[in-house]
Amino acid sequence: MARARTSRGPTRPVSLSAALSIVAALSLCTGGAWADEPTPRRDDRARAQQLFDSALEDAQKGDFAHACPKFQASHLADPKASTLLNLANCYEKNGQTASAWGAFREAEIFARKTAHPDWETTARERAEALEPKLVRLTVSVAEGGRVPGLAVTRDGARLAEGEWGVAIPVDPGDHVVAATAPGKKPWQEHVKVDASNMTLDVPALEDEPAPPPALPEPVTALPKVEQPAPVPVYWTTLRKVGVGTAVVGAVGVGAGLIAGLVANGRYSDARQQCRDGVRNCPSSAVSDADYAYSLATGATVAFVVGAVVMAAGGTIFFLAPPGQAQGRGAPGAGPSIGLGGSGIVGAF
To answer: What is the pTM of this model?
Structure first.
């Protein structure tokens, strides 16, 4: 916490009648300007005169709280030593001793530049009379608390590092001293300065708490996985049907060939039993010949039907559309039928 130390300073009363006489005398001099003063624009001069007149009315009523800002605005619009003297006197009447002292010192310099030695003397004497009544506030910063980026303010105005530890005149009343620095908690102290000098020690600022860990960014989409190139399915249902049909037809053709060979052999045996070609044949020969004719007829039918069925199976196999593609490497199997036998083939 901050520590405040007070010390009593000497005071000296100022004659109220002397102050009022200065205000009255200066108010008679505000109508003109000096040759070596900066010449404001006409509208600025008119604005300054209006503000000065209004401030003078407030001061005569004793309303210095409203008069002082108007005197200051008038001086900013049209700088004059007489306005500065009235402003300083207003500050003093309002209890703002430090502001009054500063304004009298400024008026002293201004009057010297504009060759008004009487006003220069008045301003200097008034400033010297106020000096023992000034109260000062010392804002001290310990060496250990002077971290990089430290900013110390008094009533919102930043104090230069050279002002730290120096007794600076302030107006009596409430003041706010604050300190900030990167990575540190801000500090602020309210102090009331009355008739005694005070010293305020700025403590070493505490570290700011570490920020919470950042949350991971939400996953909006899964990473894209490269799919293997599709491989068409070779053994479709139609191709399997076609192969099966062709196999059945081949069996029929084979059966027809075998039956034809048997029929031819039986017919040859029957002819050998006849003594004169196809005449004078025993009954057994005739029976064998009839059987051979019947078997040959059946062989012919089996051969023709088998050939037709085998052709149909081949047609189905070769005209069947390709199957739906599947990923490469996906296991699959299908029947394999050939002259050497049958089995199962697949891709793994």
So the answer is: 0.50
